[in-house]
């Protein structure tokens, strides 16, 4: 699927921005000529696009690569595949291997809030740790708590990713698993990612430098990073002091770092916007998720975005498809139409980018693109009809630059980098199906 572009490359018979039958000449990683009937030069590599659309490579503006690699080796413990306690039991019973069992995607609709006792009842012969699908919480059984050296009566651990990672001593094939996951993303046409993990630190940065990945990586993380956004987690249940938060934002800005706020509730969003209003904004400031944005909050977002420093929203339309049925049950009806908005942000002039939030969402960006167009839940309900995008707008959320997820979508033009997603069909056809199977090649210099 993936091929790093040669120095001298001619892509033949491609559709570029709606024009069919074009050849695209690339030199040293840049497009130098686009035209019909361009002659292939001696020694030039060729790649036949067979009439398919040549798009810029997709950028996933919000993903957690290491967690995704781990999740792919984990047992799914929540909807849609696991919805009852019996199914959870079967899933854990059938877990491969003979030591740790790592479960992911748990939701309390399966069997309530898990604890040490309830997990022991299901499985007490192997250490079990199960992550809640919010990513905030882990449930462990007695054996797991013992092995981790953690005293816990409940078996419910909050935001302990770093601790867990250290105590579990990363296994050797983690690197191989991450690189394999990178190839999976390349098969979707993804050539750039922003790793939005809030615990990313200088160790993570060093680890990334050792990896051979198919994507360019933009890292956000904690205070120890010198570049990239400072990721700030907010939690309704434990909001920080607003003055402290404003100070933290101002300090990051002073060091040349924008901030990225995790906001999945209205309160978290309003709180983040209050801090940004007081501290002032800087280019690159962003809101991750903005899951619930009603009219007044949207106006506040616009006010905070005054001057040229527009605060960007990075949304995950795939959650409408993947979790929509659960939202219909859990979220108050008055909020249904403003969940994971898309068109509302664009109409209000708020810069908008897209991410999958994998492994908490499906890593396939085409599923997110399709969800932004259809806004249909698994059961076929439509959520937020007024928030639909055209296929071009939805694709655009993933074509914006890695360092500017709400900026103008990248284009295949002379001077553009060799960073492409080649489709097997013309766009006119592709826009009706919007699936990863459309991707025939991913090319990056
Ligand atoms: Zn995330």
Count of β-strands: 21
**End-to-end CA span:** 14 Å
**Share in β-strands:** 15-25%
CATH structural fold name of the largest domain: TIM Barrel
Helix content: 25-40%
Write down the domain tally: 3
CATH architecture label of the largest domain: Alpha-Beta Barrel
The CATH class of the largest domain: Alpha Beta
Q: Could you say which overall geometry the principal axes of the C-alpha atoms support?
A: globular
Mean pLDDT score: 93
The CATH homologous superfamily of the largest domain is termed Metal-dependent hydrolases
Category by helix and strand content? alpha/beta
Please summarize the sheet with the most strands. Answer: 5 strands, mixed
What small molecules accompany the polymer chains? Answer: zinc ion
Question: If you had to describe this structure to a student in words, what would you say it looks like?
Answer:
The protein has 445 residues and is of the alpha/beta class. The protein folds into three domains: 91 residues, Roll (Urease, subunit C, domain 1); 101 residues, Diaminopimelate Epimerase, Chain A, domain 1 (Roll), CATH 3.10.310.70; 237 residues, Metal-dependent hydrolases (TIM Barrel, Alpha-Beta Barrel). Helix content is 31%, strand content 23%. The protein is built from 15 helices and 21 strands. The strands form five sheets. Strands 8-9-10-11-12 form a five-stranded mixed beta sheet. The mean pLDDT is 93. Zinc ion (ZN) binds next to loops. The site of zinc ion has 5 residues, from loops.
């Amino acid at each position: 699927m993936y091929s790093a572009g040669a120095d001298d490359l001619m892509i033949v018979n491609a559709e570029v921005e709606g024009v069919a039958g074009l050849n695209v000449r690339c030199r040293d990683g840049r497009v130098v000529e686009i035209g019909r009937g361009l002659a292939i030069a001696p020694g030039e590599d060729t790649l036949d696009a067979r009439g398919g659309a040549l798009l810029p490579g997709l950028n996933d503006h919000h993903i957690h690569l290491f967690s995704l690699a781990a999740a792919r080796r984990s047992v799914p413990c929540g909807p849609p595949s696991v919805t009852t306690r019996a199914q959870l039991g079967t899933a854990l019973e059938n877990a491969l291997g003979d030591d740790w069992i790592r479960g992911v995607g748990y939701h309390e609709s399966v069997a309530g809030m898990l604890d040490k006792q309830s997990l022991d009842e299901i499985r007490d012969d192997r250490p079990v740790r199960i992550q809640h699908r919010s990513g905030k919480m882990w449930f462990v059984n007695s054996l797991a708590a013992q092995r981790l050296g953690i005293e816990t009566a409940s078996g419910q651990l909050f935001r302990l990713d770093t601790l867990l990672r250290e105590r579990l001593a990363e296994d050797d094939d983690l690197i191989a698993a991450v690189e394999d996951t990178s190839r999976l993303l390349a098969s979707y046409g993804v050539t750039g990612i922003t790793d939005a993990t809030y615990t990313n630190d200088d160790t993570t940065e060093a680890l990334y430098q050792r990896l051979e990945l198919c994507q360019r990586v933009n890292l956000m993380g904690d205070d120890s990073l010198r570049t990239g956004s400072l990721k700030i987690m907010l939690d309704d249940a434990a909001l920080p002091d607003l003055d402290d938060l404003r100070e933290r934002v101002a300090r990051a800005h002073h060091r040349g770092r924008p901030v990225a706020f995790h906001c999945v509730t209205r309160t978290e969003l309003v709180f983040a916007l209050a801090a940004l209003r007081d501290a002032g904004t800087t280019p690159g400031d962003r809101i991750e998720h903005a899951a619930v944005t009603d009219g007044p909050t949207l106006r506040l977002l616009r006010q905070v975005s005054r001057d040229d420093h527009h605060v960007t929203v990075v949304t995950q339309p795939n959650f409408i498809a993947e979790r929509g049925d659960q939202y219909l049950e859990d979220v108050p009806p008055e909020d249904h139409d403003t969940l994971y908005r898309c068109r509302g942000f664009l109409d209000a002039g708020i810069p908008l980018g897209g991410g999958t939030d994998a492994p908490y969402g499906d890593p396939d960006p085409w599923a997110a693109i399709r969800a932004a167009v259809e806004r249909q839940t698994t059961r076929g309900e439509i959520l937020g009809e007024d928030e639909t995008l055209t296929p071009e707008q939805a694709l655009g959320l993933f074509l914006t630059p890695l360092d500017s997820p709400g900026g103008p979508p990248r284009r295949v033009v002379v001077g553009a980098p060799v960073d492409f997603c080649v489709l097997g069909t013309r766009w006119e056809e592709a826009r009706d199906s919007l699936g990863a199977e459309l991707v025939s090649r991913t090319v990056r210099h």
